[in-house]
Amino acid sequence: MKTKEITRIALMVSIIIVLGFFPPIPISLLPVPIVIQNAGIMLCGLLLGKKNGTIAVLLFLLLVALGLPILAGGRGGLAVFFNITAGYIYAYPFSVFLIGWVSEKFNVKNQHLGYGFIITFVFGALFIDICGAIGVSVLSGVGLLQSLTGSLAFIPGDAIKAFVAALIAQRLSKMLT
C-alpha cells in the first residue's frame, strides 16, 4: 500500500470521526437518532473505492470497539455492537464496499452528479436504513414492518446526505487524481 493511499484512509477516518461530533437528533418513531456520521461513510466509498474505503471504515469500527467515544453521541466500546443501533453499524463496511464497487464499475468520478447520488442513496442510505431496521426489529422485538416503516423518517435527511456526499466526492475526485 502506497503512502498516498494510507494518508487518504487516515484522512477519511478522521472525517468520519469529526462527523460523529455532531449531536444525534432523536426522533419519536424509532429509538434510533438521526446522525450525520453516515454521510462520511457514504463519502468514503465514493472517494476511496471498495478496497480502501472498506479498510477505512473497518479501521474506524476497530477504534470504536477499542472504546474511543467517536460514534455520534460520544459512544464507543464493544457494547455499541450489541445495542439497538448495531444493525446500522454493521451495515457501514458493506455499504462502503457496495458504493465503492458500483462507483468503480460505472466510473462515477467521470459521470454526472446524478449517478453518484443514486449510487450513494441506494447502496448507502437505503442499505444502511434497511439493515438498521432489521437490527432494531431483532434487538427490540418491534415487528420488521413497523421498524421499516419507522425508518422512512430517515429518508429525507439521508437523501440530502447522499447528495452532499456525491457533490463533495465529485469536486474532490478531480483534485485527488
Task: Describe the 3D structure.
The protein is mainly alpha-helical. The protein has a single domain (3-176), classed as Orthogonal Bundle (Arp2/3 complex 21 kDa subunit ARPC3). 70% of the residues lie in helices and 0% in strands. It is built from 6 helices and no strands. Helix 2 (37-65) packs across helix 3 and helix 4 (113-140) packs across helix 6. The relative contact order is 0.15. The mean pLDDT is 92.
- The third-level CATH topology is Arp2/3 complex 21 kDa subunit ARPC3
- Succession of helices and strands: HHHHHH
Gyration radius, rounded? 15 Å
CATH top level is Mainly Alpha
User: Overall 3D geometry?
Assistant: globular
What's the quaternary structure here?
single chain
How many helices? Answer: 6
Q: Low-confidence stretches at least 5 residues in length (pLDDT < 50)?
A: none
Strand content: under 5%
Provide key terms for this protein.
single chain; 177 residues; mainly alpha; Arp2/3 complex 21 kDa subunit ARPC3; 6 helices
Short description:
With 177 residues, this protein is an all-alpha fold. It has helices at residues 3-19, 37-65, 86-105, 113-140, 144-151, 155-176.
SSE layout:
Blueprint: H1 3-19, H2 37-65, H3 86-105, H4 113-140, H5 144-151, H6 155-176
